[in-house]
Each structure stands twice: as structure tokens, then as C-alpha cells.
Amino acid sequence: MTELYARLRATDPETWRAYVEHAFVRALGDGSLPRANFLHYLRQDYIFLIHFIRACALGVHKTDRIAEIRQLAGTVHALSEFEMQLHIQTCARAGLSEADLATTPEEPENLSYTRYVLDLGHRGDLLDMLVAQAPCVLGYGEIGRRLAAETGGPPAGHPYAEWISTYASEEFRQVGAAHEALMEAVCRRRIGPEPWTSPRWAELAASFVTASRLEVGFWDMGLRGG
Amino acid sequence: MTELYARLRATDPETWRAYVEHAFVRALGDGSLPRANFLHYLRQDYIFLIHFIRACALGVHKTDRIAEIRQLAGTVHALSEFEMQLHIQTCARAGLSEADLATTPEEPENLSYTRYVLDLGHRGDLLDMLVAQAPCVLGYGEIGRRLAAETGGPPAGHPYAEWISTYASEEFRQVGAAHEALMEAVCRRRIGPEPWTSPRWAELAASFVTASRLEVGFWDMGLRGG
Amino acid sequence: MTELYARLRATDPETWRAYVEHAFVRALGDGSLPRANFLHYLRQDYIFLIHFIRACALGVHKTDRIAEIRQLAGTVHALSEFEMQLHIQTCARAGLSEADLATTPEEPENLSYTRYVLDLGHRGDLLDMLVAQAPCVLGYGEIGRRLAAETGGPPAGHPYAEWISTYASEEFRQVGAAHEALMEAVCRRRIGPEPWTSPRWAELAASFVTASRLEVGFWDMGLRGG
Amino acid sequence: MTELYARLRATDPETWRAYVEHAFVRALGDGSLPRANFLHYLRQDYIFLIHFIRACALGVHKTDRIAEIRQLAGTVHALSEFEMQLHIQTCARAGLSEADLATTPEEPENLSYTRYVLDLGHRGDLLDMLVAQAPCVLGYGEIGRRLAAETGGPPAGHPYAEWISTYASEEFRQVGAAHEALMEAVCRRRIGPEPWTSPRWAELAASFVTASRLEVGFWDMGLRGG
Question: How many CB pairs under 8 A join C and D?
Fold first, then answer.
């Protein structure tokens, strides 16, 4: 873990715990989450993904460095080709067609989180946005790996085995590592090696906490159901 | 050819001809273009490509339709992985390292064209930007195919055989066709099937002509040399 | 009332009524709204105003027509000089300092509404954003005038007399009329005189309804308290 | 002069001199500039002003600090109400109607400069854009005051007395001072008190020099005529 991410994550441990140990997450882990709630979450997550792709694309737009462009362009491509298909297939197996997904109304908790990240991208620089995306990219990996460990696998019959395996996978760990490395690289060129001594630090840390708080809202929405 | 593109292209035939039959293009075709001018052009085109990728990424950002996101994300990915590599390799064979490319100062003609397209993307909607990108994507194909026909190949020993072959290729023709189809699709959902009857038409046609005029400036820059 | 606004407002009468006749509004009108809830609302409304100004400024950025620039620039100036001061003074009389305001955490309902409008501005054209701002600018006037009529004034001793008078005022009616006129003018140059026959209509109407729904959420937040 | 501006201005003294002591400037000062060239410049400067206002509005959009919003909103308002009128009146006295101005085609040198500044605003943060605007706001004041000193007034009969007086005025000096103070304040909260020790410095200084170079191009365009 980079010191940058470690410090962001440690800014407000209570909010972080509220996010990664949320009742929705625990219910996913022990399999007690009602199917209807999971499907409601999944439909919203499909919409979330659209706007997350739009944010990564904004990231490409916000740099002129080849290495950063290539990494973010790769993410945009992977998300729109593979991750999107994964969502569509998972929903299809659950009886939700692409037409169902396309007509799902977006919940306010989804709007607030996705548009907050996008607005940071427009208001600030690339670093401001990458920091606000970190709780999603890195938090999901942390949750996935913990649930995999707790459930011992997860076992094949577990109702949410696929979700847990996806986010516990080595592949997703690498997605997180790449985001961390990019955040570190952009931070070094925009601030320097010790961003916590910069006047920007309070604002960066606050964005990270706000984004984590909005993740809590997203789980709340999942528990509430559609 | 879609009627949309045919009408845009026919708005100002003199400017279009000044672009696709520019002295730089003719000198590329008959091989008389001095190597130094070609290399100057190539270095600027490398910088152009960076900002063109940033524009396509802005396009992804400016839509929430899956099909449009996937097409533009594919373009961003292809340009940043393959086209960019092609430029780097061609420059390498000409003795220009990536470090040379990275330190090349951007010419005003490059700035004016690329930033004009980007600004249209921010000021207007996705269609406004796609129209301003059309002279580049579709004009280069037209030029490539005409030079291939005129040079009969081009023959293997032609000094600019690779450039001509690239833009005359079936692959690049498909890139153009995809841009035309996307422009048509976005036009249908933002204006309708007969955009030339819309109050927006004059502005769209003017953007197309301005972008073509800025392509003329780009060739002028190539002829002037660095 | 322009036909454009009349049709947008009539798209989903139930959501519109849920907004303009919300329990928060009724409690404002009959004076039963607890002071704490009003102050919570007022603090959030101060934050809302910051992002609403940012949206109007984005509007200036999104046009090159002098008349539109001047109108929106006038709004940005008026909001940041006068409306902002009004909020600060009202809060001051209620015992809330500017420092209190500056440290108020932003509620999710505030984030979702303001950032939704801003994102529409970036994703679409100026018209897309003006339509999403209409429920706020025009709905507040409608609410203010109705409450003034219902309370007969409002009478001097009414606890929310100042709020009602502000939004019932001739001055605010003109703000609404100016927004309506600008929306109409931009609509005519981007779509034409009968936008309801355009393929864009469904999307414009949906944005209007979503923004109205987010206004309902804003009142809900006021009722819930801080 | 703040140390920030002094250091930016001293980055590339040759380019700075090429800008503030350009042949166009000297010809303005000694009155030898042909009227046609001045009018060509004035028409382009009118278009420049539109996009400069759009940049200041983007600046409002890119901050959530009240003091910064108010200052930039004041600039947007002043430019669109007063400066714009000044241009329209000066052009009117020279026989150019508003309709003439509205149909003047934008020169490439105008496009490259204005869109470069706007793109920096989108790609970076508020500071990146303010630095690229500085050569214009502060350089014009420096030029105006120098020409006023050199011409001793300027005397009433001087053909460009009004231009010189405008930019030599105490009022315009305050506009420059306000821009310098804002740049300093935003720099302090985004980087710190010694930005020249930051990894961002090379990029900030390069933007300042590029913007100055584009000012040189603007004068070249004026000399070339329309």
C-alpha cells in the first residue's frame, strides 16, 4: 500500500469502517441478503458503471501524458467491453434484460456519488478526481478479499459467490494496484512526494471521506431495496 | 456516404479542395516533399494525436448511451495503443526518439485546430464535436485513397508509401465509416433525420468548414517546416 | 408562460405537485415548520447557491452569443453579490456565522441535485442545463406566490415572512421570466419553435422531471433536519 | 509585483520582450500603425474578449470558494457589460457595426490563444488557467503604461490615444493587481508559498511562456492585416 493511499484511508476510520463493513456487505458475505435487494443494487451498479466510465474518460481528457492516457484509456476500454458485459450477463441470469437495465430509474444515492466524482474532475485537476474514485476501486477489492477469506472461498453454493470472487480476484487486485500507482504518479507530478504536507491535503482527504460516505449511501440504497 | 456527411462536405467546396488537394498532399503523392518537412509534420501529428485522443475521451464523457460509449472507448483505446505506437515507430525509423517527440514544441497551427475541436466539445453537445472531427477522420481517408490510386499502389520504393498505405487502407476506411455512422446516429437523436432543416445547421456546417480551414493551416505548417 | 415551460411542467404532474406542495412547503406556509428544520434547510441552501452559481457560470462558458453571455453573467453577478449576501444576513440573524456556513457538511440530497445539473451542463448543451435549472428558478416563484396568496401577505408576524416575500416578489418573478425567456431563445436556436416534436424532447422532459424529483429530495432533507 | 508573477515573467525574457515590445506595439505607440491594421486587430480583439469572458466564467465554475467566485464573477460581469460596450463603441466610431463584428471570421491566431487558455482550464485546475491568462491581463497593463510614458500622455491628437489611455489607466492597473492577487491566493491553497520549488513549476512556467508566444502571434496577425 502506498503511503498516499494509507493516509487517505486512515483519515476518518469510522466512515471507512461504515463503508467496508456495512450491513449490506455483511449480508452479502453470510448470504442473508434478499435476492431482490441484490438485484436492485445490481441494476443501480450498472448505471453507476456508465458514469464511472465517463469519469475515467474525463481522466483521459485531463492529461497530456502518454503513460497516463494509455492507462486510463485501457480502463475505459476494459470497463466498457468486459465489466459492462459481466453486469449484463449477471443481470440476464437473474432475469433482467438489457432493456430492463436501460429503463431503470437512477436512485438519488447513485446520482450523488457519480456526479460528485465527475464534478471534482471538472472543478479540480486529475488528482482530485482519482482520489475521489479510490474508495470505490480500492474499497471493493478490500471488501471482496475479506469476504472471500471469511467465507473460505467462497464455496460454490454461496448465493453471492460470483460477486465475491470477482472482487477478491487477482485481476481486480491488479486494477486496484494500477489505480493506486496512477494516483501516486499524478500526485508526484502535481504536488510532490509528501502530499500530506501540502495545503491541498485537507481538501484531498475530505474528498476521499465524502466519496466513502457516498459509498455508505449506496449500500443503504441496496438495503432499502427498489 | 451519408447525406449528412455529403452535405457538410459540400458546404464550402473551395475550402474542402484547398484541404484535400493541398500542395503538401500533392508533394506527399509525387514524393517531392522534402524529408525534413515530412518529419516536422510527423512530430506535430504525434502531438495532434494526443489531443485527438483527449477529444474522443471527451466524447465518451459526453454520452450515457452504451453503444456510443463503446464505440468511442474503442477508438480511444485503438488510438492510444496502436496508432500512437505507429507514430512512435515511424518516427524511430526516421531517427526521432520518443524523448525527441516529447520535447517537440507545439506549433500554433496544431494548437488552434486541436483546441478548437476540444472547445466545441465543451461548448456544445457530442454532435458539435463529432462534426468538427469529421474533416480529419474522413478527409485523411479520402486523401489516402486518392494518392493510392494516383500513384498506383503506392509502389514499394515510394518515399511516403507507408503514410499513403495507412490512410488508403481498408482498416482506415472502416474508421471513417464508423465515425460517419456515429455522427449520423447522434444527429438522429439530437436533431432528427433531416438536420439541414434545423436551426442548428448553419452552425454545424460552419464548424465543419472552420475545421477544414484549420486542416489547411496544418498542411501549411508542414510545408513551412520546423 | 411559454409553451415550452408549460409542457415541461405538465410532463409529470404528480412529481410537480409533490415538489411545489411538499409538506415542507406547507409547513413553511402555515408557520408550523420548526426553526431548526428551517435553519438546516437554509444552511444547505447556502451551499446549493454556490453550486447554482457555478452552473450559471458554466452556462456563460457554454455560449458565444453576446446576449446570452450578458444575461447569464448578470445572473452570476447578482447571485454572488446580492443573493449570497441575503443568505449570509438571514443566517446571521438566526445566529449562524459565515464560518458556521463554511463548515456545514453538504447533505447527499444537495450533492445529488446540484451535481446532476452541472453534469447535464457538461454532457449536453446549454439547453440541457437550463431545462434542469428550471424547476428551481420557476418552481420557487410559483411556491412563493402561492404561499403569499394563502397567507394573505404574508402578515408581518409570520415566522417565515421574509422567505415567502422574497420568492413572491416581483423581482423574483422577473428572474423566473428571464430564465424562461433564455430557455426559449436557446431552444429556438438549438431545436426550433416546436421542441416537443424533436427527438430530444423525451430527454429534456425527463431531465425536468428528474430535477423536480431532486427538489422533492431537498425538501425531504429539510423536514428530516440536520 | 508578487514574487510568483515576477518569476513567471522572468522565465523566458526573450519571448516576453517579443510580446511587450512587438513591432505592432511600437507602431501603436508612434502612431505609424495603419488604421486598417488597427481595425483588423480590434475586430479580432472583440472575438477574443468573448472567449476571455468564457474563460473567466469557467474560472467561477472551477472553484467553490466564495471570495474567488465573487472576484471572478465581478470580472465576468464587468467584461460583458463595460469592456464589451467599449469595444462596440470604439468599433462604431471606426465605422464597424455590431453586425460587422458578429460576422467577422475568427483568425487562427485568435483561435489558438483563446482555446489554449480554455483547454488549460479544463485539463488542469483554476491555477493552471489563471497563469495562462496572466500575460494578457498583466502584459497589456505593462504595455499601456510604457506607451503612455513614452508618448507623454498620450497627447490628445495621438491616433491611438484611447487605446493607450485605457490600458495605462489606474482602473486597468487595478484589474491587473486583482488578477495577480487571485493567482497568488489560488497558488497558496493549491501549491503553497513557494511554487517555484514545486514539481508543477516547470509546467506553470511553460504555460505562461506559451501564452506569451501566442500573444506575439496575435500582434503578428494585427500587423499582417485582414
Answer: 85
**Residue D214: which H helix or E strand, with range?**
helix D201-224
Residue B153, pLDDT above cutoff 90: no
Half-sphere exposure of B16 (CA within 13 A, CB side): 18
**Distance separating alpha carbons of residues D80 and D68, to the nearest angstrom:** 18
Average pLDDT over residues B200-212: 98
Q: How far apart are CA B33 and CA B226, in angstroms?
A: 14
ipTM: 0.95
> Angle A89-A216-D66 (CA atoms, 0-180°, nearest 5)?
120
Which alpha helices (DSSP H) does A152-200 contain, by range?
A: 161-168, 170-190
Catalytic residue among D109, D136, D142, D187: D136
Cα three-residue angle D184-D190-D196, rounded to 5 degrees: 65
Residue A125 DSSP SS3: coil
Q: Is residue D53 part of a domain?
A: yes
* Burial bucket for residue D132 (CB in 10 Å: 0-12, 13-18, 19+): buried
| Nearest chain B CA: its distance from C1 CA (Å) | 23
Cβ atoms of D52 and C68 closer than 8 Å: no
B109 touches chain D (CB under 8 A): yes
For D73, which of C66, C69, C77 is closest by C-beta distance? C77
State the smallest CA–CA distance between residue C45 and chain B in angstroms: 28
Which pLDDT score is estimated for A125?
98
Range of the domain at A219: 3-224
Q: What stretches in chain D show pLDDT beneath 50?
A: none
Number of domains in chain B: 1
* Cα dihedral B8/B10/B12/B18 (nearest 10): 110
For A53-73, the pLDDT digits (tens) are 999 999 999 999 999 999 999
What CATH number has the domain bearing residue B8? 1.20.910.10
| Interchain contact D115–B (C-beta under 8 A) | yes
C-beta pairs of D198-201 under 8 Å, 24+ apart in sequence: D198/A191, D198/A192, D199/A188, D199/A189, D199/A190, D199/A191, D199/A192, D200/A189, D200/A190, D200/A191
Q: Please indicate whether, in this complex, the C-beta atoms of D64 and C51 are within 8 angstroms of each other.
A: yes
Specify the pLDDT at position C182. Answer: 98
The Cα-based distances of D89 to A87, D17, D52, D155 in angstroms read 60, 31, 19, 21
